[in-house]
Amino acid sequence: MKKFREKLSGRIFLALAISSVAALALITVFILVQGLPIIKSVGLIDFVFGMTWAPTQGEFGIFPMIVGSVAVTLGAAIVGVPVGVCCAIFLAEFAPAALRNVFRPAIQLLAGIPSVVYGFWGLLFVVPLIRDYLGGPGLSILAGSIILGIMILPTIISIAEVSLLALPRQYKEGALALGMTHWQAIKSVLLPAAKSGIVAAVILGIGRAIGETMAVIMVLGNAVALPGSILDPVRTLTTNIGIEMGYAAGEHQQALFATGIVLFVVIMLLNSTAQYITRGNKVNRGKKK
What we know:
- The protein is built from 13 helices and two strands, in the order ααββααααααααααα.
- The protein is mainly α and 289 residues long.
- A hairpin with a 4-residue loop joins strand 1 and strand 2 (59-60).
- It is globular and about 70 Å long.
- It is 79% helix and 1% strand.
- A two-stranded antiparallel ribbon has the order 1-2.
- It has one domain: MetI-like fold (Orthogonal Bundle).
């Protein structure tokens, strides 16, 4: 009876795992089937590097939206990565236990706030501040970068903190025994040792920023044009899908699915890179031990 239960449990877990993979496979096939025909029709180069997005006129160039996505994501990384890594160092090395017990749930709460709430907050506070003090319409790359920078903090902080806490205690103890100060030990020993995990945290945070839709729809301005500065409005790949999918049909709808293919490939590459870096970090630790 015990063996039967174990086999049954194993098969149930196997079925659940297969169902997850199958769902991903179905989504992938569906996106490819819907999006590849327009890429073949327009041409991959013209689709990716085309400057004009005018579906009613048969123009399907997404390059301005690729530039907008890169600009906003880069801005989010500039805002979020230093803050996230510093918070992780503080929680792992400096914060008292009582303070950690307050900060960690607060960070998890940040991850649970709906993205539309971030967008609404940005629309009411961040956009007017930019418009009043820096100029421009306020709906801009800068506004989107600030909102996304805040949204990726939980991902970066959590993974970077775990990477620091997972280091063997001997690393820090050995550094302190050699006469290093606490900060010198962190800077010269712990951070280099946890570099792979921190880089993986940054990559996953960037992937989170690239895939965000609702918050950035509200604060970017959604102009399909190449930006001249961080105060200009832009449209990202995700916001383009979110805005136009509700009324798109025919080739227009296929072009939006093709945009999804581009996003899918980028996010898959980012996630694969993060997993490769994390796996390499674990292998290196095992060799050192």
